[in-house]
Amino acid sequence: MPANRTFEVKTLSRVEGEGALYVQLDGERIERLELNIFEPPRLFEAFLVGRAITEVPDITARICGICPVAYQMSSCHALEKALGITVSPEVRRLRRLLYCAEWIESHALHIYLLHAPDFLGLESALTLAAQNRALVEQGLRLKKIGNHLLEVLGGRAIHPINVTVGGFYRAPDVAALRALIPDLEWGLKASIDTLHLVSHFEFPDLQIDYESVSLKHADEYPFNEGRVATSSGLDIPFEEFEQHFVEEHVRHSNALHCRLQPGGKTYLVGPLARINLCFDQLSPLARKEAEACGIAWPCRNNFQSIAARAVELIHAYDEALSIVRDYHAEPSDIRTPFTPRPGSGCHGTEAPRGLLYHRYRIGDDGLIAEAKIVPPTSQNLARIEDDLRAYIPSVLGHDDAEAVRRCEHLIRNYDPCISCATHFLKLKVERT
Q1: 422 close to 249: Cβ distance less than 8 angstroms
Q2: Structural contact between residues 378 and 257, judged by C-beta atoms closer than 8 angstroms
Q3: Is 21 among the domain residues?
């Protein structure tokens, strides 16, 4: 192999959005490593300013077609704090069901269509479908059930329109929701089969002592509520989030990087971080299957995050079934009314890819005066670069094409949602 090598991926494949990788080597020393996010900033924080409170969940949902619920839920909780709203127990449970639907469709998409081909030595899901049509059809059916559940609860499968501050515009129809029980039962069994499949993949050996970060709740696996916890012992309310997690610009990226303070340490959010911190809060069935799958938890190898997603797929199907089976009547208090007023609120929820933080300030006119959004992928970007620095020495014995393929695989461990991350804009307007 030449002493000086350059690895370059001009466009990453099987990830959402547009990004690239550039690595320059001097022998075995990494001189330059950049995960280049070149997708243009999308300016959501700026154009939320001046909008009505009720517009925010619908606008933020458009940040991502895969995880719109996460953006809706984070915005709703933050604005409800600002307005002093407490939703009913029925709404709270339906919100967890809505989140189950999103995890189902997102995790199934990633496991089967984006990530599994890496472990099977295949170029894409199309190649996988040509070799094993039944496997891809199983993944597509798993995802479709999640989308159907989103449609019943949210009014449509992509960018739901039934979510609002204070609850939902209408309660889901009892018959329509309960009609999903047979599909959910099939999906629960198929998700267990999925874990059995992916936990036996051959995983590269990359053990890293991650600083895991996620929501943590005493009684339930985290979706919408809890405190921010880290594996090093930090346990804070969201009102202290920005004191400990600080975003920074880097020259090679249109997405911010986020680091834990003090010290500027990189950290991990997402399924592996959640299971590492919240294993005991998994449903009994998901916990049982996780313990039996052959992977040691907490897990320090992010190549095994595909198994973490499969465990969460089991949990999401299991919890969704429990809620739907218990849904016998449409609740009357499906939406808590409110009057716009000045205030501030911040909150975060667990998107499929990890912790998603929102903060809003409502002005004296009852409109949004300030918005801040910290997506999970921007929190993971610096950590991905650190993983690459640790991993690249082990691939230098391969030719450039194979080394690049393995680096792309590592990036796909995170299921990065690049479009979500490229949202930031500092906007200063002077008017005379």
Answers
A1: no
A2: yes
A3: no
Q: Domain for residue 7, yes or no?
A: no
C-alpha to C-alpha distances, 383 to 12, 100, 152, 209, nearest whole angstrom = 17, 27, 37, 11
Write out pLDDT tens, residues 1-30: 556 788 777 777 666 667 788 888 888 888
Q: Residue 128 is part of which domain span?
A: 44-421
SS3 158: coil
Closest CA to 133 of 125, 145, 142: 125
Return the structure tokens found at 137.
């059809």
Nearest to 169 by CA among 161, 178, 157: 161
Decide: residue 412, CB within 10 A, 0-12 exposed, 13-18 middle, 19+ buried: buried
Structural domain total, the chain? 1
Q: Are 303 and 271 in contact (CB under 8 A)?
A: no
Give Cα 310 to chain centroid, integer Å: 14
Token representation of residue 430: 């002077």
Residue 18 lies in a domain: no
Kindly report the number of other CB atoms within 10 A of residue 262's CB atom: 8
What's the CA angle centered on 309, arms 140 and 378, to 5 degrees? Answer: 105
Rounded Cα gap, residues 21 and 32, in angstroms:
11
Q: Computed over its alpha carbons, how large is the radius of gyration of the chain?
A: 21
Q: At 112, list the tokens.
A: 């089967």
Tokens linked to 397: 């014995």
Q: What CATH number should be reported for the domain holding residue 185?
A: 1.10.645.10
Taking the CA atoms of residue 51, residue 52, residue 58 and residue 59 in that order, the dihedral angle to the nearest 10 degrees is 10
Rounded to a whole number of angstroms, the distance between the first and last alpha carbons of the chain is 63
Q: What residues form DSSP beta bridges with 304? A: none
Q: Quick one: which of 249, 259, 253, 250 has its CA closest to 213?
A: 259
Q: What is the DSSP letter of 173?
A: P
Does residue 319 fall inside a structural domain?
yes
Least confident of 36-40, 59-63, 193-197, 225-229: 36-40
pLDDT in tens, 223-234: 999 999 999 999
